[in-house]
Amino acid sequence: MGKLTLLLLFITSLNSNALIPENFFQDDLTIIESIALKKKVTYFDLGPLYKGDQFHFYAKDPENRVSAEFPVPKYFYNSIHFWFNIYTLYNSNFSVLHDKKNLNIIYDVIDFTSLSKSGLNHHTKFALQSKLTLNKVKELRKTFKNLGKRKSSGIQEQNILKALKSARIKIPKGKSKRRNFFKKLSNNLRAQTGQKDNIQRGLSNILPFEKSMNKYFEKFRLPIELKAIPFLESSFNTKARSKVGATGTWQFMKHIGRHFMDVNRYTDGRLNPLLSSISALHLLKQNKQILKSWDLSITAYNSGPKHYIRAKRKLKKKNADLEYILKNYKHPHIGFASINFYSEFTALVYALAYRENFYSEPNGNAHSRLKTFITKCTQSPKWYFDNIKKLEPDARKLNLHFKRKKLKVKLKKGQIIFSDVNLNPKRYYRLPDKYITKKYPKNWAKLVRKLKCNTI
Fold first, then answer.
1. For the chain, what is the domain count?
2. Is there a single domain that holds both residue 383 and residue 350?
3. Could you tell me if 162 and 270 lie in one domain?
4. Within the chain, how many helices (H) and strands (E) appear?
5. d(CA 286, CA 254)
6. How far is CA 434 from its chain centroid?
7. Alpha carbon distances (Å) from 134 to 115, 138, 159, 190, 307
8. d(C-alpha 400, C-alpha 417), whole Å
9. Same domain assignment for residues 129 and 176
């Protein structure tokens, strides 16, 4: 595409969806970047990086809203601080450039707010933001190289030196040591997009299910703070699906999900926040029984328990916690995501505990404690939704485990249905609360095996 043609197209199509990343050649993207942004993208100096930072105040839990089981440990303090600001200060229009080994080292924060207001469609804005962030990372890597050669007169060089000083990092003396030091810093450079707006959306998404989820935590006798995990995993996005196939708010992989709930051609329990919450609580309770401490149990939710069981055995310390293992055990499978999972979780625990100070009140229907039923008859999900919609307008939203393309298929009895209203006992068996903790959801169908359907 000619550059003049692309320029005219851009000017006439700011508010259309015509521009998507797949249409761009590299130099075309550069032209659009210069037109759309001009000089509006802001590169912060070190002064306002943490403007509005309230972590130190809330980390003390001033109103005792957080369980004593989840303090802010000294060892994780800096990393929890970093993630707390990612969740409460910066929305997705910001990219924070930092050191991935030491999250106390913040080099820059890029503000893409002007890009978000440019009129470009979502895909184009994402492509531009990613490209500009990558360009900034490349610039900083050149700056690290200059510093390794003792070239420190530039503004960026001075900002990096200020960031290191602020984090109380000493630069080694000696030509070789200095070069290697800055080379490591260059390799550790990472960009993190802000998440505040995603957490805000998550608070709206959880609203219909939250009271029922709270009931499940109570029945399992597990800390309510564990509710931060689906915010960490997916920002409580019911449609979330990762590149490796993890699905739903709790991001269950298929092979793990099938252990607890039905995942087949017609239903996928991972898509239902209530079914996946019950399954996740079963899994977390098992993790706690095996690993003993919550920091390991929660981290194992992300990466599995086997590496931490192996670490305890190798270190010959049965009561080893996450801090001890991270200090004394190295394994390639315990990478950035695993190392930071508990810090991210704890940051969200405190952010959600005091959420009215960071997020606006969500809009939507807050359902009362939803009832769980098992079908006693062969029927299609569509038949149920059509017959209940006057009494339960949100019936479909509460039963997302039924796959959209299979709603007309008649399914055998034993299907799980969540409802805010009482259902006909001739067709539906109400699940007693005791079975929520005693049996996995995939086994609830056995409870109606001998029960007859009565359509009269």
1. 3
2. no
3. no
4. 20, 7
5. 18
6. 30
7. 16, 6, 18, 10, 33
8. 10
9. yes
Tokens of 118: 């440019």
Tokens 């008649």 locate to 410
Least confident stretch, 149-153, 201-205, 237-241: 149-153
My answer on whether 158 and 14 are in the same domain is: yes
Any idea which residue has 């509460």 for tokens?
398
- Residue 52 — very low, low, confident or very high, per pLDDT cuts 50/70/90? confident
Structural domain range at position 184? 3-39+93-193
In a domain, 67, yes or no: no
pLDDT at 222 over 60: yes
Cα–Cα dist 246/255, whole Å: 10
Structural tokens at position 83: 């993630």
Residues 260 and 350 in one domain: yes
Q: Per-residue confidence at 10, pLDDT binned at 50, 70, 90? A: very low
331 and 344 within one domain? yes
Give 171-198 pLDDT, tens digit per residue.
999 999 999 999 999 999 999 999 999 9
Amino acid at position 151, single letter: K
Contact 270, 276 (CB under 8 A): yes
Which single residue is written with the structure tokens 């006992």? 425
